[in-house]
Amino acid sequence: MRKRHSLRHMDLVGACLAFVRVSERGSFTLGAAAARIPQPVASRRIAALERHLGGRLFDRSTRRATLTPFGHDMLPSAKRLISLAEAMEHDAERARLAPLRLAVPDICATRDLALLGAEALRQGIELDLHPAPPPGRDDLLRTRQVRAATAAVPPGEGKWTVPLGVGGVVETHAAAVYLETLRVGRGDTERRRRLWIQPEDDVPHIRDRIRRHGDAAGLQPSQVAVSTALASAAARVLCSADLLLCSAAQARQLRLHWRPIGEIEPARGYTVAAGTGTDGRWVEEALDLGLARCLGATAAGRGSE
């Protein structure tokens, strides 16, 4: 059998491009110019391709570059290879330019998200941000509407941790607010004060823990309430003595007085979940500080102060 010469050490696509352009122009000189390579390079690549394929592609007995019957047979395959290579380059460019769709908490401030986007742009990535509550972020990732999402996880299991406390309109000089202070006596006719849980904290590792400690402190079940929207919960707090479970950063934004909870230390935990490990690692590493700022954490693994 004829020994085939491998093209492992040459550019097969480049050789086919030279072959096609020379065949189109009928000239090694003009074909090389069309392929944007020097004429000697085109000749070497075509010669190597002939050795690889085991047949002559051009009849060199005439001044014009004329295809041999073998060359005619190989030309369609060479054109398909070039088309595939061009399509791959086009797809690669489109993939590089495509925004990275990222689901983020809908409690993030617009400026913080803008700063996060600017930070990503400086690293050559455009972010397409999708604010949503925890279940919404999970659904966006599950249905592949985003490539990555900041997922809510128990503190200690994620990269970022944000301590929670309570915010209210009434200023207190106590170092902490105890849930038992919300308990009302049997004969007390005043409206029961409520502790409002916003959608971002309506996750088992936060909500259920607050409810258990509320029960232990003697609160009525209705005193630990889950709101469908942060604005609705904040409105209740702003016009009453109710409290909002929130981070210190959120309390400042809402102009509420914030204190930690005396009996427990609830906290939000966040990690980056992604369809591929590469996306998740890039977001966590490249956007570490920007995401920490958006989430209300001063740095990875540390809560807001």
TrEMBL record:
The keyword Transcription applies. It comes from Streptomonospora litoralis. Belongs to the LysR transcriptional regulatory family. This is HTH-type transcriptional regulator TfdS. GO terms for molecular function: DNA-binding transcription factor activity; transcription cis-regulatory region binding. Keywords: DNA-binding, Transcription, Transcription regulation. The keyword 4Fe-4S does not apply. Residues 18-68 form the HTH lysR-type domain. It comes from the Bacteria.
